[in-house]
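Nucleotide-binding protein Syncc9605_0652, Synechococcus sp.. Tokens?
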Amino acid sequence: MASTYSFDVVSDFDRQELVNTLDQVRRDVGNRYDLKDSNTEIDLEETELVITTASDMTLQAVEDVLRTKATKRNLSLKIFDFQTPETAGGNRVRQVVKLRKGLSQEIAKKLSKMVRDELKKVTVAIQGESVRITGKSKDDLQAAIQLVKGKEDELDVPLQFENYR
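Tokens:
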């Protein structure tokens, strides 16, 4: 039997679910009467989405469709960081949507401090873009998971728990 148990807190999303969501959004935009002739393009790059469309109003509608479809596919809306729209050539509007992945040092430190202040029986270590929480009993780790889930709204990133051992 192991003398210590641990798990990792990470911020990640399923890229394939995002691709499927964007396919649904493109299909929905192509079928909707008010968006059909807007010539909307949604491009997925490595760390961001680029939405190019005809006007601010259609951009808002496309954002709404994106949020709805992402929610239906169990993607957290916290992965989307909507930047300010900018004008593109030919009376078009472009918006960059950055995709949040991984815990920044600032968020990892905040999470680490939060767990250390509340639970004295666990140790917290920041490991790159994840936070490892270690404890002698599984009950302590369950308490840490409940604490982090309860405080997740204070953080700007979605959290997942991996490598529970």
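The CA atoms of residues 99 and 107 lie 16 Å apart.
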